[in-house]
Amino acid sequence: MNTLHTKSRLIPFVIILIVIISVLLWIFFSGSPNVSAMRDKSITTDVITAGKYRVKVSVNPDPPKVGKNTLSVIVMDEHTQPVSKAKVRAVAQMPAMGSMPAMNAPADMSEVEPGKYQGEFELAMSGEWPLAVDIETEQLGHGDLTFDMATGRKGVTVATATPGDISHYTCSMHPSVKSATPGTCPICSMDLVPVTKKEMQSGSIRMDARRRQLIGVTTDIAERKSMTQTIRAAGRVTYDETRLADITLKFDGWIGHLYADYLGVHVSKDQPLFEVYSPDLLSAQQEYLETWRRRNNKNDTLLKAARQRLLLWDLRLPQLRQLEQRGRADEYVPIHSPMTGTVIEKTIVPGSAIKAGQKLLRIADLSRVWVEGQIYEYEIPLVKVGMAVDVILPDLNQRSITGKVAFIQPYLEGETRTAKVRVELDNTQGELRPDMYAHLHINVDLGKRLVVPESAVLYAGDSRVVFVDLGDGALQPRKIKTGLRNASEIEVLEGIEPGDKVVTSGNFLIAAESKLKAGIDQW
After folding, report:
1. Less CB within 10 Å around the terminal CB: N or C of the chain?
2. Cα-based angle 48, 50, 53 (whole degrees, multiple of 5)
3. Which residues pair with 418 in a beta bridge?
4. Strand duo 418-426 + 463-471: pairing
């Protein structure tokens, strides 16, 4: 009985002793490094290969919280030796959603011990915050990693770790979208594509066959070949100014009978145009008759002077002989045409009073006409007198007449900055009428030159850019210096070589992606 009683009294003491020992063990082990690490609420990734680096990343606390968090990055080389003095950059980015722009949470990383880098980043709100880590040294180059990370979710999972020297991610169709981590485009939901730092420096991009087909990429070869240029100028038919004649008189008078009595009438050389009465002319005729009757011989000085006066007043020798035969002066004297042509101006009617020097009629010989066109200032050096010209006449069913450049205006029209070129054409059939519209096509042989299709060249301010296909899906923008051009080709003076393959279509979409990478200096 005493033994049972004693055992029952020991049981509470044993229980108490067990509890005390358990507490002491808990206190002892809670102070050890392993348990401390467990209470640290951090998550550490396995060793990850990124380029020539071996990397371990940890975030504290786990899961990450809204507010400040600590990022630790251990950087080692291929032999697992710590890498010091590396440039470590890290940023958590919440992708853009709808009208809300992307938010960045950069970590200010610094080396706390050899090969270990630490920094804090602050998350502004709950949600997905993909994490990008970039490592760089002169000896080992670049290494890039991205991780899937979210507030309230345990674990940081590596998404990508490539030796591709990734700078950022963008959308092929919307290059304004720029993300530090992979994902989808907030505009079109297409997968974002990586942009390497090498591409950033050169502006080159990679495009697989499927994407090329989607945007319709075609290419052509830059080659040296004979280049011709057709200079086109709007023009019109006009009078040959060397075949115009104005009818004026050197005395006052009145118009009698008018033979050339309407505009457009055709007149022949020596044909009477009109008759004129003039007291001065009548007096001069009478003076000539008196001198002729009292002449001593044909070389009489007074007779010569009287005859010369009438000749200078546009009377003709046959008229003087008729005057001598008739023996009396004509009151109305006929005035004859000096040339064959068409009356294009008329200012008189029968009975009109006229003054000396007044233009009465203008006659044009239309058997030969001019066609004048306007060429621009930059085209003038290419055009030479004697070059062949095709004159296209829209009003004659696009009829083409071949002529030659007869004249180039030696000065520019101030307002239009153009100069006239002239072509002389035969018009004995009378089909070409002044003021008829015409098109001048001047064919210029420019010789052998390095050319690319006109569609291959993009204009960006003062810059001219083509995309060169480097093979293996790589496309690189090249600044070029251009020279002459025609309807389909442009001369290239600098920037590419014969045999280079250039993009001829789809280059606007390619440029949209490349502009973001190349920067303002390239474009």
Report:
1. N
2. 85
3. 376, 413
4. unpaired
Angle formed at CA 298 by CA 295 and CA 301, multiple of 5 degrees: 70
pLDDT tens sequence across 24-36: 554 444 443 333 3
Q: Tens digits of per-residue pLDDT, 452-499?
A: 999 999 887 788 889 999 887 888 888 999 998 888 899 999 999 999
- Which string of DSSP letters, residue by residue, matches 195-208? EEHHHHHH--EE--
- Measure the CA–CA gap between 407 and 515, rounded to whole angstroms: 48
Q: Model-level pTM?
A: 0.55
Are residues 156 and 162 in contact, defined by beta-carbon separation less than 8 angstroms?
no
To 10 degrees, what angle do helices 279-293 and 301-312 make?
150
Alpha-carbon distance values, 405 to 292, 420, 426 (Å): 55, 11, 14
CB atoms within 10 A of CB 276: 24
Rounded to whole angstroms, the Cα distance separating 219 from 451 reads 14
Q: Which two tokens stand for residue 492?
A: 């290239």
Question: Is-contact 63 153, C-beta < 8 A?
Answer: yes
What are the beta bridge partners of residue 65? none
**What is the mean pLDDT of the segment spanning 352-375?**
95
Contact 284, 313 (CB under 8 A): yes
Query: What are the CA-CA distances from residue 427 to residues 67, 335, 361, 368, 441 (Å)?
Result: 92, 28, 22, 5, 20
Is 37's pLDDT higher than 50? no
Q: Give the angle subtended at the CA of 349 by the CAs of 347 and 351, to the nearest 5°.
A: 125
Choose among 450, 440, 447, 443: nearest CA to 489: 450
